[in-house]
Specification:
By secondary structure, the protein is mostly helical. The chain has one domain. It contains four helices and no strands.
């Protein structure tokens, strides 16, 4: 008896009062549908909307990942440049210190050896 009742309900069209109670709006396309057709159409529309939301979220996360990756690469590049500058400054300081020590040692009467800090 339930199978007969459900098949009878599926054979009937979706009425505007039924749709209004469900909070749905009917248009020309859906007014001539059976309940089963309407539900399939409604489910397909909801799936399309959900897919669009998921696709948008994936795009947002991908963009954020690319931006963070670029910022990380820029940060690493900046840190490498700073390290290179420190090493270069250290090498220049060491060369100047050696020259200063050599000159000071040669000119010193008490042979003091100076170090660059």
């Amino acid at each position: 008896m339930c199978a007969v009742a459900s098949s009878d309900a599926a054979a009937h069209g979706v009425t505007s009062s039924t749709a209004a109670r469900a909070g749905l709006k009917l248009d020309e396309r859906t007014e001539s549908m059976t309940v089963e057709q309407f539900l399939r159409s409604y489910l397909a529309d909801m799936c399309d909307k959900a897919n669009a939301v998921v696709d948008g979220a994936i795009d947002d996360v991908s963009l954020l990942y690319k931006q963070l990756r670029e910022e990380t690469q820029n940060y690493r590049h900046q840190k490498r440049a700073e390290e290179h500058a420190r090493n270069k400054a250290g090498a220049c300081c060491a060369q100047a210190c050696v020259r200063f020590q050599t000159q000071t040692f040669a000119a010193s009467t008490n042979n003091k050896f100076y170090h660059c800090l």
